[in-house]
Amino acid sequence: MKKILLSRHAKSSWDNPEWTDIERPLNERGLRDALKMSSVVANLLDKKPDLIVSSPALRAYTTCKYYADAFKYPQENIRKDINIFERGPKYVVSLLQSMDDQYDFVALFGHNPDMTSLFAYFTGDYVANIPTGGVFCVEFDIESWKDIDKVNGNLIFFEYPKKHFPKDRFEFD
After folding, report:
1. Contact status, residue 114 vs residue 134, Cβ threshold 8 Å
2. What is the DSSP string of 127-168?
3. What angle do CA 61, 27, 6 make, to 5 degrees?
4. Which helix (DSSP H) or strand (DSSP E) does residue 28 occupy?
């Protein structure tokens, strides 16, 4: 069995028009949601990830670090991969296919529209949008990562901030 946890970064800031896309940080809500959601997800898991990989974009990597802390995973062991930021969902599939089979559970932090596309690709189910801070976990009845695209996985959970903290939101949010 192999398992993946895929997360879209939490809400980013658009306060400074001079920031490049990769430099955009989380805003206040994003920081709060990343902290809360990492705790929610850590409590849902019976086993923590063996490997964590993140886009190096500041908003994704910051989200990732909250999860690493909640999983008691050393931040210095987080792998950054620029291609998660630049190349799209096909790259993520190929990245997972190339994983060492010593890892049974991999967590990956990235961006939309990739996360929404990957949800459909890995589960065979449709979701209109993975919201900021959204995270889903899928388990596959495979022994090797190279086979991850040959079967639909079993969706373990799909969580997002509004599901757990609706009072933190405004109606137009």
Report:
1. no
2. -S---TT-EEEEEES-SSGGGTTSSPPEEEEEE-HHHH-GGG
3. 40
4. helix 28-44
**Would you state the structure tokens that stand for residue 57, as one six-digit string?**
């974009």
How far does CA 55 lie from the centroid of its chain? 10
pLDDT mean for each 10 residues of the chain (173 residues): 96 89 91 95 96 97 98 97 92 96 97 94 92 96 90 91 73 43
Query: Which CATH number fits the domain 2-168, given the four candidates 3.40.50.1240, 3.40.50.1820, 3.30.420.40, 2.60.120.260?
Result: 3.40.50.1240
Q: What does the alpha-carbon distance between residue 119 and residue 57 come to, in Å, rounded to a whole number?
A: 21
Please give the model's pTM, rounded to 2 decimal places. Answer: 0.91
